[in-house]
Write a structure and sequence with these properties.
Length: about 400
């Protein structure tokens, strides 16, 4: 790996940057959008390989322009320093686009209104849709980065049984996992699209806390330590007969893997073992189906069919409160497209990276089931989180 030139704005190789631009411009052409003005950090990172304060202007033809506010001293073709958004118009001059795409799903209304005023004669479209579609199909370089995160993620999970000490709470175990993960190189950031979901480093759910409903759209909830962040560990002591579901941060280089594994203290109910095996079986079945051209909703239907055939539907994706999906795209953000849900309109495509997470909550035991991150190829899928899938026992 080449050392990073911190003065160079563009950190992607030329060919990689070109491939990503081609995907973005294909979406622009399909939506009849003549230019984009990108403000979101995740999208700027996708386009350049770095985060900066400012904007990226992409037209269907012509060079990309990087309007930078901070940091100072960034260099490269297309870099223009600005003090305020209104300075953008001076650089563009008479090259006013007929339509301008803004990330209406993620930027504040006040920002969207201000930016639209820069282009009073241009129609406004939603660039968020274009960027989501472009980022859903990963390049080879992106897959390499996700694979790299996955290997580090697996190394951390393999150490979890050795981190447990008798009498620990869920929080104490999570702190030890976080420490190991950070020393392995985890960036700590859990980048999530939208403002309706918040999370710190991931979830460790013990026993009945897994059945505590959360306001966030996660597969599993948890009460959390405080009503200001009502998700995850709540200080429960790990007791015999409990399962411990670990779904921790896998961001080691700006690209994430999503992985869940289950641990237990002592014997657990037979139905918990049955449900955990059902989750593994669902993964196998869906991997056989997860080929380009498959409607995402058919994957959900197949999972539901397997669950119902085994009489486990009341526990599927929660017991007290059920999640409405069993998988999602993952990459720079943890909740990308496609979404594996019953009403999803997404179609599986080559280059998708998808986290599948069919899970169950068994009252008085806890959560079971696995989550893996997979890459979709033309004729197969690759598991990017190849850790042991059976329940691991802490009192080994």
């Amino acid at each position: 790996m080449h050392p990073i030139d911190h003065n160079r704005l563009m950190l992607l190789e030329h060919d990689e940057h070109t491939r990503r631009l081609e995907q973005i411009r294909a979406g622009m052409t399909a939506s009849e959008t003549s230019a984009l003005l990108i403000a979101d950090n995740a999208n700027k990172y996708y386009i350049t390989g770095r985060v900066f304060a400012g904007y990226v202007y992409i037209s269907l033809e012509g060079p990309v322009i990087f309007f930078v506010r901070r940091p100072v001293k960034l260099e490269g073709d297309g870099v223009v320093y600005i003090r305020k958004p209104e300075d953008i118009v001076e650089t563009l001059g008479l090259n006013v686009p007929s339509s301008i795409g803004l990330e209406l799903d993620v930027i504040p209304y006040s920002t969207a209104t201000r930016l639209k005023k820069l282009f009073p004669e241009s129609d406004m479209t939603n660039a968020s849709v274009i960027m989501r579609q472009a980022r859903a199909v990963k390049t080879c370089r992106e897959i390499d980065l996700i694979r790299e995160s996955g290997l580090k993620h697996v190394r951390v999970y393999n150490r979890i049984p050795h981190l447990y000490q008798s009498g620990m709470t869920d929080l104490e175990l999570q702190v030890e996992i976080e420490r190991v993960s950070r020393l392995e190189g985890c960036l700590g950031q859990f980048r999530i699209c939208g403002d309706s979901m918040e999370l710190y480093m991931g979830n460790v759910l013990v026993g009945d806390n897994a059945d505590s409903p959360s306001p966030y759209d996660f597969a599993m909830g948890g009460e959390g330590l405080d009503p200001s962040l009502p998700v995850g560990a709540n200080g429960s002591e790990i007791r015999p007969g409990n399962t411990i579901m670990v779904d921790m941060n896998g961001n080691y280089n700006g690209y994430m893997t999503d992985m869940t594994r289950v641990y237990a203290l002592g014997k657990v109910q037979p139905i918990a073992l049955e449900a955990h095996q059902c989750s593994i079986d669902i993964h196998r079945a869906l991997c056989d189906m997860m080929i380009p051209g498959t409607p995402a909703k058919e994957l959900y239907s197949k999972a539901e069919e397997i669950v119902k055939s085994r009489g486990l539907h009341q526990y599927f994706m929660g017991h007290c409160q059920h999640a409405g999906f069993i998988g999602h795209g993952v990459g720079i953000e943890i909740n990308e497209t496609p979404v594996i849900a019953p009403r999803s309109r997404d179609i599986i495509a080559e280059g998708n990276v998808i986290a599948l997470e069919p899970k169950f909550v068994i009252p008085h035991t806890g959560a079971v089931g696995i989550e893996n991150t997979y890459c979709v190829y033309s004729d197969r899928v690759e598991c990017l989180t190849p850790a042991p899938e059976e329940i691991s026992y802490l009192d080994f």
